[in-house]
Amino acid sequence: MRVLVTGGAGFLGSHLCDRLLQDGHEVLCVDNFFTGSKSNVQHLVGAPAFELLRHDVTLPLIVEVDQIYNLACPASPVHYQHDPVHTMKTSVLGAMNMLGLAKRLGARVFQASTSEVYGDPEVHPQPESYWGKVNPIGIRSCYDEGKRCAETLFFDYHRRHDVSIKVARIFNTYGPRMNPEDGRVVSNFIVQALRGDDITIYGEGLQTRSFCYVDDLVDGFVRLMNSDVSVTGPVNLGNPGEFTVRQLAERVIALTGSSSRLVFKPLPQDDPRQRQPDIRLAEELLGWEPLIELDDGLRKTITYFDGLLSGKSTAGAV
Ligand code: NAD
Ligand code: UDP
Ligand code: UDP
Questions:
Q1: Do the domain assignments include residue 203?
Q2: What pLDDT digit, counting tens, does each position of 216-248 carry?
Q3: Where do the DSSP E strands lie in the chain?
Q4: Which of 120, 140, 156, 306 has its CA 20 to 30 A from that of 22?
């Protein structure tokens, strides 16, 4: 098949491009390189089945493909808050354009939604049936509400125009090719530990997250995309192993052997206190569950950042 991946030069998108090429598909990678980078897909450039196009998904896109994975959107708080209006446009207009494209082509379209649609959840762990507790006017809202609106568009195009949709709600995912500048907790802690800098814990570090390794997640993407047409989602994809931010810092220090100290900084506004996926639906519908334990995934990610910081390895080497 010919498969379009928007946001394909980003962290998750570049791993998905690798996987789709391995599976024998042709890949059209579309990205505006806001948070992604050419270096993430440099190793694919020149391959006959791979094509890279600079394009912003807020604008219409006329191409011919069989499947569309819509991943384009800045994902870290630092980056999605940098230009909140453009973040909202990316989620909403990007979804609309990809749905319009899917409608014209009769192509199946996958949406990278997020656990942020649950906001600061009052139900724990979070099942897909939970509608969430989201602040509509806070600093995270451009992302949370943008992604919620995108889900609405997906389901309206499905009901109104019979577009075949697959909506994944992704929980915190980490691994090689995370952008070391995007401020996410796993990349921040690993880079700080490797440099011997202070490890910055926001608040008391008692908030929890559940961390999924990228290879597990990408396998969930492919299973969901190729599931029976009756499966639309939303389906949670994430690793249910739940850790406090402080526990994560301790794991990173232990695995790097770093002498970094923990320092405490103010907790950002609306930072969710807890997050853990209920993945029973993914298990039942897709036969999917994550296999990689946190320590194993952290070791692989540490190896990647170690190589990157010392200039010895590149994104293509993972
Ligand atoms: P990322 O920032 O590495 O990737 C996003 C990619 O989209 C980048 O390459 C960026 O340049 C591109 N992009 C941004 N705006 C664009 C636009 N207007 N037009 C074209 N390209 C654009 O982040 P990621 O972690 O790989 O996230 C990929 C997707 O998965 C995002 O939609 C994100 O919301 C979703 N997601 C990720 C996580 C996670 O933990 N990594 C969790 C939940 C949801
Ligand atoms: N669109 C696109 N590529 C296509 C078909 C549509 O980018 O191949 C865009 C189109 O420009 C529009 C959006 O998708 O902004 C929604 O398209 P749809 O046909 O649903 O809506 P309409 O054009 O009727 O408003
Ligand atoms: N966090 C932290 N120190 C950092 C970066 C993040 O303590 O250097 C915390 C952040 O406040 C949040 C959690 O780690 O509670 C996860 O943050 P991230 O930005 O990775 O993702 P999200 O908040 O979107 O889940």
A1: no
A2: 999 999 999 999 999 999 999 999 999 999 999
A3: 2-6, 26-31, 50-54, 67-70, 108-114, 165-170, 173-174, 199-202, 208-210, 212-213, 235-237, 242-244, 262-265
A4: 306
